[in-house]
Amino acid sequence: MRLDDTDRLEAFSDGVLAVIITIMAFGLRTPGGFSWAASRTLLPSLLVYLLSFVMIGIYWNNHHHLLRATEKMDGSVMWSNLAVLFWLSLVPVATSWVARFPHHTLPAAGYGIVALGAGAAYSVLVKCIVAVNGVGSRVEVAVRRDLKGKLSLVLYATGVALAWVNPTVSYALYVAVAVMWFIPDRRLASATTETD
Amino acid sequence: MRLDDTDRLEAFSDGVLAVIITIMAFGLRTPGGFSWAASRTLLPSLLVYLLSFVMIGIYWNNHHHLLRATEKMDGSVMWSNLAVLFWLSLVPVATSWVARFPHHTLPAAGYGIVALGAGAAYSVLVKCIVAVNGVGSRVEVAVRRDLKGKLSLVLYATGVALAWVNPTVSYALYVAVAVMWFIPDRRLASATTETD
Amino acid sequence: MRLDDTDRLEAFSDGVLAVIITIMAFGLRTPGGFSWAASRTLLPSLLVYLLSFVMIGIYWNNHHHLLRATEKMDGSVMWSNLAVLFWLSLVPVATSWVARFPHHTLPAAGYGIVALGAGAAYSVLVKCIVAVNGVGSRVEVAVRRDLKGKLSLVLYATGVALAWVNPTVSYALYVAVAVMWFIPDRRLASATTETD
Amino acid sequence: MRLDDTDRLEAFSDGVLAVIITIMAFGLRTPGGFSWAASRTLLPSLLVYLLSFVMIGIYWNNHHHLLRATEKMDGSVMWSNLAVLFWLSLVPVATSWVARFPHHTLPAAGYGIVALGAGAAYSVLVKCIVAVNGVGSRVEVAVRRDLKGKLSLVLYATGVALAWVNPTVSYALYVAVAVMWFIPDRRLASATTETD
């Protein structure tokens, strides 16, 4: 594969993310009426949509920095990247499920499973990229300590388990992950700045 | 961040806007019959869709000129840009709500709140860009007097409030904002022409 | 505006067209059963979808050749281009209306009105581009005789009128336009070849 | 047509594929409840979605390698490429039909017909590209023996026929094709590597 394959992988991923974000908003159901009662059902939808929107925004940003630091790629990178997109493409359905039944166990757990799947796939993507680019490469140095990534997986898994105790606690944990990642990944950002 | 991050931010935003415009049309419900009566419900849908289409078109155009005049960006620009996209992604739902209940207060007010949110987020985006690029930069000079931006926010807020009096007045105000912006932002257009 | 604004206009238009094509297929309703009877309703849907798909494909191709021959643009080009996209964005709804009620007057006429609107907007776009680029410019020479464009509008208008006589005749006329344009616009294709 | 027409064809195709993948996930119906019973209906949906996702991923990858090896194109390439996109755009509807009625003949056969149509259109696309680029061209050498392509068509056709015997056998054959293509097309990959 040639270097500009990275650009194309990024452009395709960006396209998928752009559609996910927009289609998710479209999945917010138009209130079936015009009264306060009818429109009040919008609030939980909007909150979970906001959470999902921020989550996709974070992936978009980190993915961008990751690929910018990547010099070589192969089929394993392509397929693990598709796996990330696969899990993220389930976010709109999970979002819409939670929006409809916010106080129940299974939707809260399902949302966490999708988030966990995306996070795990992203870790695999990082591993594949490091394997191709080698120890000591720019991208390997940048992601060497992936504390935030590991912590995210732990928090999501805990959120899934606690959905059987109290869905609100699960949501709190999912929000915590989003807040933690809200600050862009400085390791990769600085890696790209240093070298270019 | 490197300069071509601006291009990527613009490409991603363009992608989201392209999906918003198309999905909004898709949200126009196919008439449930083939008679004049069944198809007459299309008219209010088409009018509000046209308004939303023009609104998105205006954002697309101004956003383009804004980013072209931008030389530097950072995380605050990226996130305030995502905030603009977040609010604009709610336009299809607001459009479809108004299309279904055009004569009621809450849909008319809700549409205005979404427009107000997008306008406010755009103002924040402009502020973040100016903060990064500094006083005297090309983009700062171009947006120094943002009368139209401020007036839009006032008109949208008035429209929201007047939805409790008469929704038609609200729509008139929203249309007024669209007409006002229809002419492309000459300040930024000339700024890009002068320098390149 | 700078020259690469043309590229961006084309990229944005391509994005909208890509979403229109895909969302139109998504609008084909999944058969509500698994029997021959349930799936037979798919056939008219598929035929009208095929017609709309070819129509969008033709616009995509001709639009590409048109913009490639275009050297200068301004706000009027941008807005007439958005008008083309506005009309084309109604194609999925018109398609889905015809798919549901293929034997009735209003859906058949509605489809033709959307096609007529898109065709008229495209003519305006061509006029705006010629006005900006001037008589004798590459693009003006290429589009000087626009017989096919004018004939399309006549055929579409006839189709709309004849929907009150027999919808099948309308569809035949719409198909005739598609067949006529199927061959790419050689004038523009050769214009771009000559100069580059 | 100029060489960068290939890039634009690829960008447009990528856009369509990105929307197909995302819209297909959106077609997964949000469970209508929050109980195990309500959510269990998700499993067949997820499995068939996974199969379709991998299928689109494979097309994306092979299409990319094919176009990279392509030096010249004309109208026949453009239209046969649109034919591939046409068939692939039917994948979300076929997927959603199978997801709803996984144990019946017609949905299983319909899915195979769509896959067969896409595969046949892809073969035609390859033939058109070879015809334009000539015997001995890089792309012609790369695709000279197209065993996998021919075998896929046979397997899909067999799957369609066997849907009347047992839909599960059809799905097994469709999965077999996906597994067979999962490994990227080394012929084209090496062709691009050799020359660049």
What is the terminal separation of chain A in angstroms?
22 Å
Strand portion of chain A: under 5%
Q: What would the principal axes of the Cα set say about the shape of chain A?
A: globular
Number of domains of chain A: 1
What is the chain-wise order of helices and strands of chain A? HHHHHHHHHH
For the biggest sheet of chain A, the summary is: none
The value of Rg of chain A in angstroms is 18 Å
Mean pLDDT, all residues of chain A: 85
- Most residues in contact: chain pair: B-C, 36 and 32 residues
Q: Oligomeric form of this entry?
A: homotetramer
**How much helical structure, as a percent, in the residues of chain A?**
over 70%
Number of DSSP-assigned strands of chain A: 0
Features:
10 helices, homotetramer, mainly alpha, about 200 residues
In words, what does this structure look like?
The structure is a homotetramer of 196-residue chains. Chain A has 196 residues and is mainly alpha-helical. Chain A has one domain. The first copy, chain A, is 80% helix and 0% strand. The first copy, chain A, contains 10 helices and no strands. Chain A has helices at 4-27, 36-40, 42-68, 75-89, 91-100, 105-133, 138-142, 147-162, 167-182, 186-195. In chain A, helix 1 (4-27) packs parallel to helix 5 (91-100), helix 4 packs antiparallel against helix 6 (105-133) and helix 6 packs parallel to helix 9. Chain A is globular and about 60 Å long. The first copy, chain A, starts with a helix and ends with a helix. The relative contact order of chain A is 0.13. Chain A binds chain B through residues 10-11, 14-15, 17-19, 21-26, 28, 30-31, 33-36, 38-39, 50, 53, 57, 60-61, 64, 68, 182-184, 189, 192-193, 196, and chain B through 1-2, 5, 8, 11-12, 15-16, 19-20, 23, 27, 75, 78-79, 82, 85-86, 89-90, 92-93, 96-97, 100-101, 104-107, 110.
